[in-house]
Amino acid sequence: MIGLISATAAGAAARDRLAAAWPDRTRVYDGPVGDAVRRAFAECEQLVCFLATGAVVRLVAPLLSDKTSDPGVVCVDEAGRFAVPVVGGHAGGANELALAVGELLGAQPVVTTATDAVGIPGLDTLGLPVEGDVAGVTRALLDGEPVALAAEVAWPLPPVPFAERGSYTVRLTDRAVAPASGEVLLRPPSLVVGVGASRGAPVDEVLDLVEGVLREAGLSVRSLAELATVDAKADEPGIVEAARRLGVPVVTYSAEELAGVEVPNPSDAPLAAVGTPSVAEAAALIGGGELLVPKRKSERADGRPAMATCAVVRRPARGRLAVVGLGPGARDLLTPRAKAELRRASVLVGLDQYVDQIRDLLRPGTRILESGLGAEEERARTAVEEARRGQSVALIGSGDAGVYAMASPALAEASDDIDVVGVPGVTAALAAGAILGAPLGHDHVSISLSDLHTPWEVIERRVRAAAEADIVVTFYNPRSRGRDWQLPKALSILAEHREPTTPVGVVRNASRPDGTARLTTLTELDPAWVDMMTVVTVGNTATRNIAGRMVTPRGYRWQENSPESSREGSQEGAL
Ligand code: SAH
């Protein structure tokens, strides 16, 4: 029995939700809180207290005797945001109870018993159909007991701290097997069934064929990803309805595309009807993979000609490469999406200093491949290789990973057999801009002054173009020990078109603990202030220093009261 104790109206409301959901397992203890906790502690195997953790600790402390016999106690705060196992995490089942309570109330379970118990994804939250002993294997993972992964199919799973061997197993399989005891089956969407059908083919004929073929081949229908066919059959009711009942989409290809796929069993009938010698096999095989069941025809009880064909392919695993910008440094400038991607990746690739920046966020079981400065191409190649092996990979970069960073070398390596997800980050120019004021209020460019990979002539041509076009410029990689003349040269080019008093912002280590910012002018800037941790933003001819802030007006006519400017203004303001 689970004893429920609350002190306030908000607590009582959450308590009642729990009591309503688990009527046979819970008992509400009313009356003064201290008494209620004592009675529940004596009578129940578990307690959920809708009270502050401190209060519960004080009430429960004198009652504790032995962790094998004490009840498990979970605390839920009044706002229902957290479910905290306070005592009896393992033996008392409080960890598991906190997960269940958390799920029911939408509260975050705060499990603190073992480091390897923190942040393990629920097996039923991996986005794959799951069967078997989910509760037992989850508890084993939470308790730090060895759980082995048996992957028959490569699939980009999030990190789970799997052991080499264990009495518990997570089996990643598309085969129609039943889970053994202590085993969880995860069903990757690895099967594609190609379907051909004559006009008017009955849905039952299509469905019986697909299900029957999977069954005979020993494959699980829960791993079915899609039905694939030719464009001309996109609206064929028997196929559409079969897919609906199977809970998968219908994916179609043109006859031309299908005709280009090499298949074992081409025939003349579909060639005449829809213009390709194969529909079922070609549509199943078009994304590559292994043909598990060649073309099969439906069987009709009435002996009339078959109206449907199908073929089954196990498609190659599609790995996932997330290219994640970490922002300029401060933790609260790391986006929630970036954080989620870091926790989703089972392989993390990055520069060692950036890995250090986010190491605490990674889940147990994450494989970290870090390398030093200069190994960009190797990092890019490693990340792509891991993704092609079917892993879930995060490739990290500071600021935005697409700005003078890892995204382009990685995507230059990547073929279309992996999924790529980009997560934008706050790039240095924006982080610095926010510190300086509003320097980027009108057209602006970023220019890297590093002539390591770009000839200086090209850089100079771009600086000159920005100078002539009166565009605000942010210089990245402005100056290093071995590269000191480029910044003065670039500033002198801008000075040919801008006043000596043009505001210039120099921001070093934006958003980091030792960050500094100066607002100076084109002629007063001392290059000694500038290093590789710095960006330099040069205003345009309208940029002003207003009350110590760098402000670039949004346009010369912005303040004018012409109908055009006010119309434009209101539209843009709405953005
Ligand atoms: N991808 C990064 C830029 C990498 S290039 C981004 O989007 O920000 C490296 C250059 O970025 C550095 O030489 C420096 O000019 C600039 N930079 C990166 N982080 C910075 C920070 N926190 N403060 C100031 N400049 C920074």
Helix-strand blueprint:
Blueprint: E1 2-6, H1 9-21, E2 26-29, H2 33-43, E3 46-50, H3 53-60, E4 72-76, E5 82-87, H4 94-105, E6 108-109, E7 130-132, H5 134-142, E8 147-151, E9 168-172, E10 183-186, E11 191-197, H6 203-216, E12 224-230, H7 237-246, E13 250-253, H8 255-259, H9 268-274, H10 280-285, E14 290-297, E15 308-314, E16 319-325, H11 336-344, E17 347-351, H12 352-358, E18 367-371, H13 376-388, E19 392-397, H14 407-413, E20 418-423, H15 428-436, E21 437-438, E22 444-448, H16 456-468, E23 472-476, H17 486-495, E24 503-508, E25 516-521, E26 534-538, E27 544-546, E28 549-551, H18 563-574
Parallel strand pairs: 1-2, 1-3, 3-4, 5-6, 8-9, 9-10, 11-12, 12-13, 16-19, 16-20, 17-18, 17-19, 21-28, 22-23
Antiparallel strand pairs: 4-5, 7-10, 11-15, 14-15, 23-26, 24-25, 24-26, 27-28
Helix pairs in contact: 6-7, 13-14, 16-17
The structure holds S-adenosyl-L-homocysteine.
S-adenosyl-L-homocysteine binds next to helix 15, strand 24 and strand 26.
EC number: 2.1.1.131
Domain Cobalamin synthesis G N-terminal: 36-116
Domain Tetrapyrrole methylase: 321-525
Question: Can you tell me about this structure?
Answer:
The chain is α/β, with parallel strands linked by helices. It has five domains: 2-112, 3-Layer(aba) Sandwich (Rossmann fold); 123-186, no CATH class; 191-314, 2-Layer Sandwich (Nucleotidyltransferase, domain 5); 320-426, Tetrapyrrole methylase, N-terminal domain (Cobalt-precorrin-4 Transmethylase, domain 1), CATH 3.40.1010; 429-574, 2-Layer Sandwich (Methyltransferase, Cobalt-precorrin-4 Transmethylase, Domain 2). Helix content is 30%, strand content 25%. The protein contains 18 helices and 28 strands. The strands form six sheets. Strands 2-1-3-4-5-6 form a six-stranded mixed β-sheet, with helices on both faces. A five-stranded mixed β-sheet has the order 13-12-11-15-14. The protein has a five-stranded parallel β-sheet with strand order 18-17-19-16-20, with helices on both faces. Strand 11 (191-197), helix 6 and strand 12 (224-230) form a beta-alpha-beta unit. Helix 6 (203-216) packs across helix 7 and helix 13 packs across helix 14 (407-413). The radius of gyration is 31 Å and the shape is flat. The model is unreliable at 562-575 (pLDDT under 50). Bound molecules: S-adenosyl-L-homocysteine. S-adenosyl-L-homocysteine is lined by residues 328-329, 397-400, 403-405, 427-428, 431-432, 476-478, 507-512, 532-535. Pathway: Cofactor biosynthesis; adenosylcobalamin biosynthesis. Residues 565-575 have a biased composition (Basic and acidic residues). Keywords: Cobalamin biosynthesis, Methyltransferase, S-adenosyl-L-methionine, Transferase. InterPro entries: 4pyrrol_Mease, 4pyrrol_Methylase_sf, 4pyrrole_Mease_sub1, 4pyrrole_Mease_sub2, CbiG_N, Cbl_synth_CobJ/CibH_dom, CobE/GbiG_C, CobE/GbiG_C_sf. This is Precorrin-3B C(17)-methyltransferase.
